[in-house]
Every structure is written in structure tokens, then in C-alpha cells.
Amino acid sequence: MNLNCVNNAKSGASNDYILRSVLDNLNKFNHNDLIIVMLTWPDRRLLMDHNKNKIVNALPQNKYYKDYYLKYHSEELGILNFLQNFLALKTILNNLNYYITFTTIEPMILCRKYNWAKNIKLIDKRVIQPPNLGFYSFIKDNKRLHPNDFEHSKIANVINNNINK
């Protein structure tokens, strides 16, 4: 595509973080930019860590935030938060050249479990569905959770092919 790439991704980031990153950079986007947002698992959240006095990305497997997930989190709340971030991104980026994709399509499938989410239109021309239910299928070494450079290149080619359809 011969574009200048600016990558604001952060390993282990939540969809809350992704939305906040888009908001932080919104004034830098223009109509000629191609903006690609890849959402992640709904269980990842931004939380206030009062011990560190800062907002952090929290993951269910992190021992420091396990208490939050055990006491206050549920699949349904994760899906609700996922939809809030997804719909907010679509609204905020509406007048720009953007596409939204996902590390996995599972949250979109899980949305259908809840009556309150069944009538929300999720898929449109700005949403790229990953092949094989998710881009995790591109990772050949099952000891890694994230793609290497070659696998990232394959993912970028899938996204590029979808954009140029």
C-alpha cells in the first residue's frame, strides 16, 4: 500500500485502552489516513490501580487484578463493555477512512447470547471479519500468544485484501 505506518498497539491492551488511544490521537487523523483498529478480548479492562496511582490494563490471569474479576466481572459485562467500545469507535471514526477488525470473532458470536444485543447491527463494510474465526490461527508456534513479524505480514495482507475488495 506504500503508506507510512503509525502503530499505537500495546501488547495486552484492553478495548478500553484502544478506544482511549483513538481518542488521544483523534486530532492527528485526517481524511487521507487509513485507520485500522483491531479489537481484542472483552475480558481485558482498564482499571484504576490505587496502589500504583495510575490506570492500568487488567487481564483476568494477572494475580493483582484477580479480585476484580472474581467479584465484579462476568461474561455479560465483558460483552457489554466490548459493544460500548466497538460502537463508540464506529461513531467517533464515522467521518474518516477506517476499518475495524478483531483478534478473534468470538466476542461478536458471544453478543448473540444476550437478548439485549441480538438486534444490534455489528457487521458492515467497515468491519473486517478475520478468517478461521480469528487471527490467532496465523500463529504457528503455540507457545506464543502474539504473531511474529512474518505472521503480522500475513495478517496485514488479509486486511489489505479486504480493504481493496
Shape: globular
End-to-end Cα distance, whole Å, is 14 Å
The SS-based structural class is alpha+beta
| Average residue-wise pLDDT | 89
Number of H/I helices? 5
Number of strands: 4
Biggest sheet: strands, sense, closure?
2 strands, parallel
Q: How much helical structure, as a percent, in the residues?
A: 25-40%
The number of domains: 1
What proportion strand?
A: 5-15%
Strand order in the largest sheet:
1-4
Radius of gyration: 16 Å
Helix-strand string: HEEEHHEHH
Low-pLDDT parts are: none
Q: Can you describe this structure in just a few lines?
A:
35% of the residues lie in helices and 13% in strands.
In words, what does this structure look like?
The protein is α+β, with helices and mostly antiparallel strands and 165 residues long. The chain has one domain. It is built from five helices and four strands. Strands 1-4 form a two-stranded parallel ribbon. Strands 2-3 form a two-stranded antiparallel ribbon. The model has no long low-confidence stretch (mean pLDDT 89).
Provide key terms for this protein:
alpha+beta, single chain, globular, 4 strands, 5 helices, 165 residues, 13% strand, two-stranded antiparallel ribbon
